[in-house]
Amino acid sequence: MEKKLGSSIIKLVKGDITKEETDVIVNAANPSLRGGGGVDGAIHHAGGQQILKECIAKYPSGCNPGEARITSGGLLKAKWVIHTPGPIWKGGNRGESTILRNSYKNSLLLAEEYSVSSIAFPSISTGIYGYPIEYAAEVAIKTVLEVLSQTNIKRIHFVLFSDSDYYIYKQKLESIINEFEK
Ligand code: AR6
Questions:
Q1: Does the beta carbon of 84 lie inside 6 Å of ligand 1?
Q2: What CATH number has the domain bearing residue 158?
Q3: pLDDT (tens digit, 9 = 90+) per residue, 118-156?
Q4: In the chain, how many domains are there?
Q5: CB neighbours of residue 74 within 10 Å
C-alpha cells in the first residue's frame, strides 16, 4: 500500500527490512549499539561485521534512547543504517511516547544530513521492548508526517514483519492521512 503526500510517498511493506533497497534502513537498536535480537540481530547478521566494527569505533558510549547514530550498510543493499534505541514500554506514563517520537524524528533529521532520498523504518519498540503496536503505529506515522516537510526525503517505507502488524499500520495510515489532508 502506498500513499502520496505532497511530493513524497509513504509505503507499507510486509517483510524483512534487511531486503530493502532504500538509501537508509533504520535499526531498532539498544543503547549499547553492540547488536542484539529481533530486527537488530537481523540487520547485523545480513550487513556483516562492518556495522558492528563501526558502531564500536565511532560510538564507544553507545546511544541514548530516542537519539540516532549512523553507520554504513556493510553488505546490505542500503547504503546506510541509522541505529536508534526506542523506549522500553513501562505502561505508558514514563515518557515512552516522547522517546519513540524522538527516535523517528532524529532518524529522519540524521538521514537528511546525509542527503538521502529514501528510508525504511521497522516498527521500533514493538517487539522485545513491548510497546503496544496500536499506540506505536500512531506515534510513528504522525511523527513521520510532521517531520517529512523539514527534509528532502521522497520515499518512506514502514516495514512490518507480520500480517497483523501490517493491517494495524494500514488502518492507522489511512485515518491519519485523511486527518492530515483536511
Ligand atoms: N524486518 C522487519 N521487522 C522485523 C524484523 C525484520 N527482519 N525482525 C523483527 N522485526 P524488535 P524492539 C520486527 O524486538 O522492540 C533487540 O535485541 C518485530 O516483529 O526487533 O525495539 C535490540 O538490541 C517487531 O515488530 O525491537 C534491543 O535490545 C519490530 O521489528 C531490543 O531488541 C521491533 O521488534 C529492541 O526491541
A1: no
A2: 3.40.220.10
A3: 999 999 999 999 999 999 999 999 999 999 999 999 999
A4: 1
A5: 18
